[in-house]
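$ fold --in a.seq
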Amino acid sequence: MQWTDRIRQVKIILVLAAIIIAVASLIVSNNLVKKLADEEHNKMEVWAEAMRSLNKADENTDLNLVLKVINENNTIPVIVTDSKRNVQIYRNVNLKGVNYEDSLKNAGSISEKLLNEGKFIRIYLDDSLKNDYINVCYDDSVILKRLSTYPYIQLGVVMLFVVVAIFALLTSKKAEQNKVWVGLSKETAHQLGTPISSLMAWTEILKENYPDDELIPEMDKDVKRLELIAERFSKIGSLPEPVPSSLMDVMTHVIDYMDRRTSSKVTFIKEFPENDITVRINSSLFEWVIENLCKNAVDAMEGCGTITLHVEETASRVIIEVTDTGKGIKKKNIRNVFKPGFTTKKRGWGLGLSLAKRIVEEYHKGRIFVKNSEIGKGTTFRIELTKRA
C-alpha cells in the first residue's frame, strides 16, 4: 500500500511540475507578446503622426522624413479612413477582391472591424474642427500573431510528446511485468512439482497401510489440491483454450472447498438460477478467481460473517457477484485494489486480485470490478462474462 501511495505521489508531483512549467511558459510568452504589441502601437502612433504631417503639408514642408516613416512600415497592416469612414489608403493588408472596387469594400469591412475593436488612432487635422480627422486603423503584424499562438502550439507538441512517452513507458513496464509474472509462475509450478509427486506417493503408501483411516482421504484431497494449484501456475503466460463448462458446478466446487476450510462462523449463501448456465471458461483458472474473492472476503470479515455468491444470466452476459459483510474498502483505495502489490493486510503480497483481473480480462475477455463498497457494511465484486458461441 505504501509503495502504491508513493507511486501516486510521484505522478502528482510530475503533473504539478508540468503544470507549473506550462503556466510559467505562457506567462513569459504573453509578457513578450504584450511588449511587442506595445512597441507596434508606439510605431503606429509615430506613423499616424507622419500621416497628419503629410495631410497638413504645404510647399515649405520637408516631406523626406515623413515619407521615410510611412514607407518603412512593411509589417503592420494599416488602413486609413476619413471622418465618414471612407477608406483613403491601406498598406500591408491582404484583400480579397477581383477588382479595385471589391478590394476597397473588403478594406472597408476590415477597417470597421478594427474600429469596433478599438484598434485605431484618431488624428485631428485641424484642432479647431472636431469633425476633421482621420482614423489610422491597424492590426497585429504577422509576426505578433504567430508569437501569440506559438506557445500554445509548443505546449500542445510537448504534451503530445509527454503522453506518447508515458504510454511507451507504461507499455514497456507492462511487458516487463508480464515477463516477471510468467517467469515466477512457471518457476513456482516447477518447484512445486517434485514435493507434490513425493506427497502423492506417500499418500498411496498410507492408503495401503491404513485403509480405514478417515484423515487420509482428506490428505489426498489436499495433495490433489496442490497439484491443481501447480497446474494453474503452469498455465499463467499461456493461452489456455476455454471450453464449455457448467458454471454452477464450478461455483459449487469452490464453495464446498472454502466451506470446509474456513471458520464455522462464516456462512456461504448461494443465489443461483434454477437452470444450469454453460459458459466457455477454463475451469481451473476461473475457480482460482472465485477462491481469491472468497478468501479476501473471509479476511475482510475477520473470520465471521456472510458471503453471498449471486449468479444471473442475461441475453448477452453472465454475471457473478461475490458479496461479503466485511469492513469494506475506502473510496480512495477502490481503484487500486487490482494493482500488483496493493494490500491493506499486514501480511500478503497483494497479488490475488491482480491475478484474478488478468485471468478474467485476458483469458476470458470479461470484466471484474468493485460494484460497490461501504465501510463497516461490506463489499461486492462483480464479474461479467460475454456469451460466446
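$ fold --in b.seq
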Amino acid sequence: MSRANPSGSFYYDSQSYYDEMFTHDFSVRPHYNSVYSLFAHMPASKLAARQQALHQRMIEEGITFTLYSPNQQEPLERTIPFDYIPRVIPKVEWDLIDRGVRQRIQALNAFVHDIYHGQRMVRDGLIPRKMILSNMYFRPEMVGLEIPANVYITASGIDLIRDENGQYYVLEDNLRTPSGFSYLFKGRTLMSELFHDIYLSSSVQSIERSINCFLSSLRALAPNGKKDPLIVLLTPGSYNAAYYEHTFLAQQMGIHLVEGRDLVYQDHKIYVRDLRGLRQVDVIYRRIDDPYLDPLAFHPDSLLGVPGLMNAYRAGNVAIANAPGTGVADDKAVYAYVPDMIRYYLGEEPVLHNVPTYILARKDEREYALAHLNELVVKETSLSGGYGMLIGPSATSEEIRAFSTAIQRDPSRYIAQTTMKLSRAPVMINGVMSPRHIDLRVFALMGAETHVIPGGLTRVAMKEGSLVVNSSQGGGVKDTWVLNDE
C-alpha cells in the first residue's frame, strides 16, 4: 500500500516502519506541524531555489567529504548530501537521550580506566580477559598510566536508532576519533539562514555554546591545570576524508591545525613550530588513529605522527584527546557488555538499551547466527564506517556463504545483531517528500563536566530502501532540531 496526499507533497509506501513525521494513518505528528506546513505548501520553485542556494553555499564553503571506492582510481571529493527537511525531536524525548548518553559515556570512561589499571571487571568475571588482550585497540603502553582527570573519552559519538515502535536503541559507540561535528554545526548555520522563517518560529534549542564546551573539555586536560594551554588539532593532512572537519573545528575553537611534521619532540615535551619559533604544546586533539601517533611506539613506518610523542605523554607534559587505547571500548564485541558496565561501575540500570547482539566467539550464539544469517546483520568487530558488514535480509546467497566461511574461520572477529527496522524521515526528492531510513549520532564532550550537544547529527540513507547511513557509503545528513518545549 502507498499513499500520496492530495497536494502531492508527500508519497509514502506502507507504514511498516516508525516514521518521524507521520503516524501510521499518515497524520502529522504534533511536533512536526510547522515544519510539515512549510514544506508541504511552499511552491516547488521556491524549494528548488533554496535547495540551489544551499548547495551553492556548501560548494563555496568547501563542506565536503571524500569517498573512497574500490571501483575508483581516484578518491571522489563531493559535497555531503544535505536534506533540508529537519528532523524534529520533542524535549521529552531528548531528555531521555541526554540522560542515557551521559550515563553510557560515564560507564565507558570508567571501563577504559579500569582496563588500564586494576581490571576489576575482568577479575570479577564480567568480561573475558581474552576479549581485552586480543583486542586490536588495546594498548599495553597505557597500562598503569595516569592521565589528566582520568578522562579518556573527551569526544564521543553515540549512534542511536529507533525501531518500528519508536523505541531508541544504541547501535554503536564511536570513541576513538568520531567525525561529523562540522556537519552538525554547518547544517544548523545553513538552515537558520536559508530557512530562517521556520527556524525562528520553532523554538529550537541552540547549539552555539557547544563549540565553547568542546574547547573547555580540551582545556580541562592541560597538564598541571595550566590556565591558558596551547592546544593543537593533529590531522593526517588534506587527503583525509574528514579534512574539512579538521579545518573547521580548529578555526572555530581558535586552536592550531597541525600535521605531524609541524611538531617536535624535545626533552620529553612536544613543541609546535610557528613564526615565533618553538612553542610548547599542552593538549593535542588528535584525528589520527593510535598506530600512526608515534612511530617510535606504534607503527614504525608512520609519517603522520610525532616521534617521541608517547614519551612526552608518559612524562605528563602533554595531553592527548582522545587518549590512546580508548578504542578498547569501541570494539563491537565489547559493545555487548556496556549494559553490564553501567550496572557494575554506576550501580544503575541502562537508560538506553543495546540492539540485541550475538557474540560469535560463543559456540551456541555462533551456531544460531550461522543458521539465521539471512535474518541478521553481521559486523566485523574492528571496522567502522559501514565496512565489513553483511545485511542478511538484503544479501545474496553468495555473500551469505562468504560470511559464513569467514565466521567459521575466525568467529572472534564478528558479531551479529538483530536486524532493526530503522525509523524513517522524509527527504525532499524532486519537490516531493519521500521516506528514507535514518539514525542519530549524538555527540558528548567530557572534561570538567559532560556536555551533550542538543540534537546531534541525523544521518540519512539516501538510497531508497537502504539501511546504510554512513557518509563513507554515500549517506547524507539532516539538521536535527530539539524543541525547547513539549
